Amino acid sequence: YVLTQPPSESVAPGQTARITCGGNKIGTKSVHWYQQKPGQAPVLVVYDDSARPSGIPERFSGSNSGNTATLTISGVEAGDEADYYCQVWDTITAVFGGGTKLTVL
Amino acid sequence: EVQLVESGGGLGKPGESLRLSCAASGFTSSSFTFNWVRQTPGKGLEWVSSIDSGGRFIYYADSVKGRFTISRDTAKNSVYLQMSSLRAEDTAVYYCARGSFGSGTYRLDFWGQGTLVTVSS
Question: What residues of chain B lie within 8 A of the CB of A55, using their CB?
């Protein structure tokens, strides 16, 4: 199972960033999203398509339908600059997307 | 506070073995699934292996199947990755990640800081 993410996205502070994750019938799977800043471990920011872990700002949201899942970051801040990875389970195997580098202009 | 601390990384030669450890604290580790995920420097994340709470259901990525073995010691709140027949392409930062179940799948909700494994002659 292959997950496809755009290598990079750019957004101005205060604007909305949308990072996509494409996969065959991904809408039938639960998608998780991770944020990774340079030199740090990944952090879960959205799980089960649209749920937020404790401590994650409401600015982070997710959706999933058809062949595309989307991570949306509203009111982007400089601190949101990071790599973002989507992830699903393909039966017993975890699959990650290639990652999207979000640049805050 | 949930903490996962990896150790055991270092330099190994092709064909050699290394054993990684992940020490869990701040929660009842026996109730959770654990995963190893690796990341080649400058590249993306690759899932390596998982072990369920009872240690019975164990899965591996094809790239490490037959060479790596995951295990856990509930009494020590620890998870291990025995890496054998190391290859240059195993060079990566290895992360231990806790799996929490919900909506039919596991999310990796806490990660350690990682340990670097370098395979080189």
Answer: none
Cα gap B116→B9, rounded to integer Å: 5
Q: What is the pLDDT of residues B50-68, one digit of tens each?
A: 999 999 999 999 999 999 9
Q: For B74, phi and psi rounded to 5 degrees?
A: -60, -40
**The pair of three-digit structure tokens given for residue A61, joined into one six-digit string:** 């949201």
CB B109 within 8 A of CB B43: no
Say how far apart CA B105 and CA A6 lie, in whole Å: 25
Q: Which residue in A42, A51, A98 is closest to B111 by CB distance?
A: A42
The pLDDT value recorded for residue B103 is 77
Q: How far is it, in rounded angstroms, from Cα B91 to Cα A67?
A: 33
Cβ neighbours, 10 Å, residue B80 = 20
Residue A74 reports pLDDT greater than 80: yes
| Residue B61 touches chain A, beta carbons under 8 Å | yes
A95 within 8 A of A14, measured Cβ to Cβ: no
Q: Which residue in B39, B97, B45, B48 sits closest to A99, CA to CA?
A: B45
Question: In chain A, whose CA is at the least distance from the CA of B36?
Answer: A94
Query: Which chain B residues are within 8 Å of A48, Cβ to Cβ?
Result: 102-103, 105, 107
Q: Please answer whether residues A77 and A16 qualify as being in contact, where contact means their C-beta atoms are separated by less than 8 angstroms.
A: no
